[in-house]
Description:
The chain has helices at residues 30-45, 63-73, 82-87, 104-112, 127-140, 154-165, 196-199, 203-218, 338-353, 364-383, and strands at residues 8-13, 16-26, 52-59, 77-79, 93-96, 116-120, 144-147, 171-179, 222-230, 235-236, 239-240, 246-253, 258-264, 273-280, 283-288, 294-299, 312-315, 387-388. It is of the alpha/beta class.
Amino acid sequence: MSKVGFVTMGESSGGEDIPTVGIGMLGYGFMGKAHSNAYKTLAYMTWPPPLMPQLVAIAGRNPEGVAGAARRYGFAEHLTDWRKLVEDPRVQVFDNSSTNDFHAEPSIAAAEAGKHVVCEKPLGRDANEAYETWQRVEAAGVKHMCAFNYRFVPAVRLARQIIESGDLGEIHHFRGFYLQEWIVDADFPMVWRLDKSVAGSGSLGDLGAHVIDLARYLVGEIDAVSATTRTFVKSREGEPVDVDDAVEALVDFSSGAVGIIEASRFCPGRKNALTFEINGSKGSIAFDMERLNELQVHFAGSKPGDLAQGFRTVLVSEADHPFWQHWWPQGHMIGWEHTFVHELHHFLTAIRDDTDVAPHGATFEDGYRAAEICDAMLRSAEAGRKERVSYR
C-alpha cells in the first residue's frame, strides 16, 4: 500500500476489512459525472474493491452548480476553492476532471501535498505545460495517471494482447480516426473548448490525443509526423475561434510502421466514432467505439476462393476476456461508462499494492509524450513540412 494512511470500514469480504480512500474531485461536468459514477460503481461491482472510495468533497467555480453536483454524485461536501481540497487531510486521491487550463497547477499542488493524482487528458495545453506537470508530480513520489480511458475498453485490451502474442506478425499499418459532429453547426455557441487559452488546441487535443495514445499503446512510439489542420468556422457569437476544427496527419513509428491519424468535430452523422485498424504481416484487427464490445479480426491463412475468408467479429464478452470478471454472463454488454470503472479500479489497485500504473494505465509521462506529438503536428501544419518528435 502507498505511504498515505488509510482507515478500514466495517464491511468485509472473506473476513477482511476493506481499506477506504478519500476522493477529492475538481470539476463536476461531463468528466466529473463519469468519474463519480465509476467510483460508486466499482465500490460494489468489482467486489471486493481494491480500496473503498469515500467521496469527500467536490470543487467547482459555480456555487450553485457544484452544490447540485455534490448532492447528485454523493459527495459529502462541496467547495468553490480547489486549494481546500489539496489541504484536506481526508483527501488521498485528487481527481482532476476540470477544464484544460486547470490541469497543471491543481495537479501539481495536490501531488506536492502528498495526494495521488488522476488528471483528465490532455495533461497540459502544450508540451511545456505537460512536461512540467509530469516532472513535478513524479518528483513528489505519488501515483499518477492521465485518464486515457480507452485503454480500458475490453476489446482494446484484447487487441494489445493479440499484438503482443505475435499473431499479427510485424506491424505495418495503423489507421486511427476520432470523428464527431457536435460543432458542425455554424450557430453552435462559443464554448471553452474553442478557446486556445483554455483548451490548448481543438479537435487535436480533445479527440486526436486519444488516437495518439492508442497508437502508442498498441503499436509503439511515433518518430515523425506530417500534418494539416483546418478551422472551418472562424468565429462564434462574435468571438474568434483560434483552435483547429480538424487535423489530418501521417505518422512514422519507431518500429518502421506507418500510420494515419485523423480527428474532426465536423463530421455529420458521427457521434463518437473512434476507430482504428492495424495491419500486420500475419493478420489485421479493427475496432469501432460505437460497437465497443466487438473486435474485427483477420488472420492470414485463408485462400482465394474460401467462402469464409476476411474479417470475423469477435464478441468481447467472455469470462476470460479483459475486465469481464467484474460483469455479466457472455453476450450481456457493457458500455462506455464502464471504461472509467476499469481505469479507476486499476489506479486504486496500484495505490493499494504500490505497483506501477504503467504499462496499461497511462501515466503523466504518457500524457506528456502525447502532448509532444500534438505539438509536433501543430508545428508541421504551420510550417508545411514533416516534423520530428523529440522528448526531453
